[in-house]
Amino acid sequence: TRSTRPQRMLKAVQKNATRGDPLSVISAIDRFCRHSEWAMNVGDEKGTILDSVVSEVNPAMALELGTYCGYSTVRIARLLPPGARLVTLEFNGDYAAIARQVIEWAGLEDMVQLVEGASGDWIPRMKEHFGVKTFDFIFLDHWKDRYLPDIKLLEECGLLRKGTVVLADNVICPGTPDYLEYIRNSPSYESNYFRSHLEYTKAEDGLEKSVYVG
Ligand code: SAM
Ligand code: MG
After folding, report:
1. Which of 2, 26, 50, 80 could bridge to 84 as Cys pair (CB 3.0-4.6 Å)?
2. Is this complex scored with an ipTM above 0.90?
Protein backbone atom coordinates (compact mmCIF):
# COMPACT_ATOMS: atom_id res chain seq x y z
CA THR A 1 0.00 0.00 0.00
CA ARG A 2 1.01 3.60 -0.56
CA SER A 3 3.02 5.28 2.18
CA THR A 4 1.71 8.23 4.17
CA ARG A 5 3.08 11.78 4.02
CA PRO A 6 4.61 11.53 7.51
CA GLN A 7 6.36 8.30 6.47
CA ARG A 8 7.74 10.02 3.39
CA MET A 9 8.89 12.95 5.52
CA LEU A 10 10.72 10.55 7.84
CA LYS A 11 12.35 8.88 4.80
CA ALA A 12 13.59 12.29 3.63
CA VAL A 13 15.14 12.83 7.07
CA GLN A 14 16.83 9.43 7.11
CA LYS A 15 18.16 9.97 3.60
CA ASN A 16 19.30 13.59 3.84
CA ALA A 17 19.92 14.50 7.49
CA THR A 18 22.88 13.63 9.69
CA ARG A 19 22.11 11.72 12.89
CA GLY A 20 22.56 13.93 15.92
CA ASP A 21 22.42 17.15 13.87
CA PRO A 22 19.08 18.91 14.54
CA LEU A 23 19.67 21.63 11.92
CA SER A 24 20.14 19.03 9.21
CA VAL A 25 16.86 17.40 10.26
CA ILE A 26 15.07 20.77 10.08
CA SER A 27 16.50 21.53 6.61
CA ALA A 28 15.70 18.06 5.28
CA ILE A 29 12.04 18.51 6.29
CA ASP A 30 11.86 22.09 4.94
CA ARG A 31 13.34 20.99 1.60
CA PHE A 32 10.89 18.09 1.39
CA CYS A 33 7.94 20.39 2.11
CA ARG A 34 9.00 23.13 -0.29
CA HIS A 35 9.88 20.87 -3.19
CA SER A 36 7.83 17.69 -2.77
CA GLU A 37 4.83 17.89 -0.47
CA TRP A 38 3.37 20.68 1.67
CA ALA A 39 2.90 19.71 5.33
CA MET A 40 1.58 21.48 8.42
CA ASN A 41 4.95 22.12 10.15
CA VAL A 42 5.52 25.63 11.49
CA GLY A 43 8.12 25.80 8.70
CA ASP A 44 11.31 27.76 8.13
CA GLU A 45 9.94 31.32 7.97
CA LYS A 46 7.79 31.28 11.13
CA GLY A 47 10.40 28.88 12.54
CA THR A 48 12.95 31.70 12.82
CA ILE A 49 10.44 33.69 14.91
CA LEU A 50 9.82 30.61 17.07
CA ASP A 51 13.60 30.21 17.49
CA SER A 52 14.10 33.80 18.63
CA VAL A 53 11.25 33.61 21.18
CA VAL A 54 12.54 30.30 22.59
CA SER A 55 16.07 31.71 22.82
CA GLU A 56 14.84 34.84 24.56
CA VAL A 57 12.79 32.85 27.12
CA ASN A 58 15.47 30.17 27.62
CA PRO A 59 12.86 27.87 29.21
CA ALA A 60 13.71 25.16 31.73
CA MET A 61 10.23 23.67 31.27
CA ALA A 62 8.44 23.91 27.93
CA LEU A 63 5.16 22.56 26.59
CA GLU A 64 4.06 22.01 23.00
CA LEU A 65 0.51 21.14 22.02
CA GLY A 66 0.48 19.40 18.62
CA THR A 67 3.65 17.44 17.74
CA TYR A 68 2.71 16.12 14.29
CA CYS A 69 6.04 14.79 12.92
CA GLY A 70 8.26 16.53 15.46
CA TYR A 71 9.53 19.38 13.27
CA SER A 72 8.80 22.18 15.74
CA THR A 73 9.73 19.84 18.61
CA VAL A 74 13.23 19.58 17.13
CA ARG A 75 13.37 23.35 16.53
CA ILE A 76 12.48 24.07 20.17
CA ALA A 77 14.42 21.27 21.87
CA ARG A 78 17.72 22.10 20.14
CA LEU A 79 17.65 25.57 21.75
CA LEU A 80 16.91 24.47 25.34
CA PRO A 81 19.51 24.98 28.07
CA PRO A 82 21.13 21.92 29.67
CA GLY A 83 18.73 20.00 31.94
CA ALA A 84 15.63 21.58 30.42
CA ARG A 85 12.61 19.54 29.32
CA LEU A 86 10.04 19.81 26.57
CA VAL A 87 6.73 17.97 26.97
CA THR A 88 4.90 17.61 23.63
CA LEU A 89 1.38 16.23 23.12
CA GLU A 90 0.05 14.42 20.07
CA PHE A 91 -3.20 12.47 19.94
CA ASN A 92 -2.61 10.75 16.61
CA GLY A 93 -0.63 7.55 17.23
CA ASP A 94 0.69 7.31 13.67
CA TYR A 95 2.09 10.86 13.83
CA ALA A 96 3.54 10.24 17.29
CA ALA A 97 5.38 7.16 16.05
CA ILE A 98 6.99 9.17 13.23
CA ALA A 99 7.80 12.07 15.56
CA ARG A 100 9.64 9.75 17.97
CA GLN A 101 11.94 8.68 15.14
CA VAL A 102 12.49 12.24 13.89
CA ILE A 103 13.33 13.45 17.43
CA GLU A 104 15.69 10.51 17.91
CA TRP A 105 17.37 11.14 14.56
CA ALA A 106 18.06 14.67 15.76
CA GLY A 107 19.51 13.21 18.99
CA LEU A 108 17.11 15.14 21.20
CA GLU A 109 15.16 12.27 22.82
CA ASP A 110 16.65 12.87 26.28
CA MET A 111 15.10 16.32 26.65
CA VAL A 112 11.77 15.58 24.96
CA GLN A 113 8.84 13.79 26.54
CA LEU A 114 6.36 12.91 23.79
CA VAL A 115 2.94 12.10 25.24
CA GLU A 116 0.31 10.34 23.15
CA GLY A 117 -3.06 11.75 24.06
CA ALA A 118 -5.48 14.65 23.90
CA SER A 119 -4.59 18.00 25.43
CA GLY A 120 -7.90 18.21 27.31
CA ASP A 121 -7.15 14.92 29.07
CA TRP A 122 -3.46 15.54 29.78
CA ILE A 123 -3.32 19.18 30.90
CA PRO A 124 -5.11 18.42 34.22
CA ARG A 125 -2.63 15.56 34.85
CA MET A 126 0.60 17.47 34.13
CA LYS A 127 1.42 18.36 37.72
CA GLU A 128 1.10 14.87 39.15
CA HIS A 129 2.32 12.99 36.11
CA PHE A 130 5.34 15.07 35.09
CA GLY A 131 6.13 16.83 38.35
CA VAL A 132 5.66 20.16 36.57
CA LYS A 133 5.12 23.26 38.68
CA THR A 134 4.62 25.79 35.90
CA PHE A 135 5.74 26.10 32.28
CA ASP A 136 8.13 28.84 31.17
CA PHE A 137 7.19 28.53 27.51
CA ILE A 138 4.14 27.07 25.72
CA PHE A 139 3.77 26.55 21.96
CA LEU A 140 0.15 26.20 20.80
CA ASP A 141 -0.09 24.47 17.43
CA HIS A 142 -2.79 21.81 17.70
CA TRP A 143 -6.34 22.09 16.34
CA LYS A 144 -7.29 25.73 16.24
CA ASP A 145 -10.61 25.45 18.11
CA ARG A 146 -8.69 24.02 21.09
CA TYR A 147 -6.42 27.06 21.71
CA LEU A 148 -9.02 28.92 23.75
CA PRO A 149 -10.33 26.06 25.92
CA ASP A 150 -6.79 24.80 26.51
CA ILE A 151 -5.28 28.16 27.54
CA LYS A 152 -8.15 28.50 30.03
CA LEU A 153 -7.49 24.95 31.26
CA LEU A 154 -3.78 25.73 31.66
CA GLU A 155 -4.73 28.78 33.74
CA GLU A 156 -7.18 26.81 35.89
CA CYS A 157 -4.64 24.05 36.49
CA GLY A 158 -2.10 26.60 37.74
CA LEU A 159 0.42 25.79 35.02
CA LEU A 160 1.18 29.44 34.17
CA ARG A 161 3.35 31.79 36.23
CA LYS A 162 3.98 35.50 35.91
CA GLY A 163 6.20 35.71 32.84
CA THR A 164 5.16 32.47 31.12
CA VAL A 165 5.37 33.04 27.37
CA VAL A 166 2.63 31.51 25.21
CA LEU A 167 3.33 31.44 21.48
CA ALA A 168 0.39 30.52 19.23
CA ASP A 169 0.85 29.48 15.59
CA ASN A 170 -1.62 29.95 12.71
CA VAL A 171 -3.57 32.75 14.36
CA ILE A 172 -4.48 34.12 10.89
CA CYS A 173 -4.42 31.00 8.70
CA PRO A 174 -6.37 28.81 9.37
CA GLY A 175 -7.05 31.37 12.14
CA THR A 176 -8.03 31.34 15.80
CA PRO A 177 -10.42 34.32 16.16
CA ASP A 178 -11.90 33.35 19.55
CA TYR A 179 -8.44 32.82 21.04
CA LEU A 180 -7.09 36.13 19.67
CA GLU A 181 -10.10 38.02 20.97
CA TYR A 182 -9.58 36.52 24.44
CA ILE A 183 -5.82 36.82 24.71
CA ARG A 184 -5.66 40.40 23.36
CA ASN A 185 -8.39 41.67 25.68
CA SER A 186 -7.57 39.78 28.87
CA PRO A 187 -5.74 41.90 31.47
CA SER A 188 -3.82 38.73 32.38
CA TYR A 189 -1.74 38.85 29.17
CA GLU A 190 0.45 41.25 27.23
CA SER A 191 0.08 40.16 23.66
CA ASN A 192 1.84 40.90 20.36
CA TYR A 193 1.40 39.71 16.80
CA PHE A 194 4.36 38.63 14.65
CA ARG A 195 3.40 38.84 11.03
CA SER A 196 4.72 36.17 8.69
CA HIS A 197 3.44 33.65 6.14
CA LEU A 198 1.71 30.31 6.26
CA GLU A 199 4.34 27.57 6.18
CA TYR A 200 5.85 27.06 2.72
CA THR A 201 3.47 29.59 1.09
CA LYS A 202 3.05 33.34 0.51
CA ALA A 203 -0.30 33.58 2.32
CA GLU A 204 -0.36 35.79 5.40
CA ASP A 205 -0.17 34.02 8.73
CA GLY A 206 1.55 34.84 11.99
CA LEU A 207 2.35 34.00 15.56
CA GLU A 208 0.79 35.61 18.62
CA LYS A 209 3.18 35.95 21.56
CA SER A 210 1.42 36.46 24.87
CA VAL A 211 3.13 36.98 28.20
CA TYR A 212 1.07 35.93 31.23
CA VAL A 213 1.17 38.73 33.77
CA GLY A 214 -1.11 37.04 36.33
N1 SAM B 1 3.80 21.70 15.81
C2 SAM B 1 3.99 20.88 14.62
C3 SAM B 1 5.11 21.47 13.80
O4 SAM B 1 5.14 22.69 13.62
O5 SAM B 1 5.96 20.70 13.31
C6 SAM B 1 2.73 20.81 13.79
C7 SAM B 1 1.49 20.39 14.54
S8 SAM B 1 0.08 20.11 13.51
C9 SAM B 1 -0.28 21.70 12.89
C10 SAM B 1 -1.22 19.85 14.70
C11 SAM B 1 -1.16 18.48 15.38
O12 SAM B 1 -1.93 18.54 16.58
C13 SAM B 1 -1.72 17.34 14.57
O14 SAM B 1 -0.73 16.34 14.43
C15 SAM B 1 -2.90 16.81 15.39
O16 SAM B 1 -3.04 15.41 15.33
C17 SAM B 1 -2.55 17.28 16.78
N18 SAM B 1 -3.69 17.59 17.67
C19 SAM B 1 -4.80 18.29 17.35
N20 SAM B 1 -5.59 18.48 18.41
C21 SAM B 1 -4.96 17.87 19.45
C22 SAM B 1 -5.27 17.74 20.84
N23 SAM B 1 -6.38 18.27 21.33
N24 SAM B 1 -4.41 17.06 21.61
C25 SAM B 1 -3.28 16.51 21.10
N26 SAM B 1 -2.93 16.64 19.81
C27 SAM B 1 -3.76 17.30 18.99
MG1 MG C 1 1.08 25.46 12.81
Report:
1. 80
2. yes
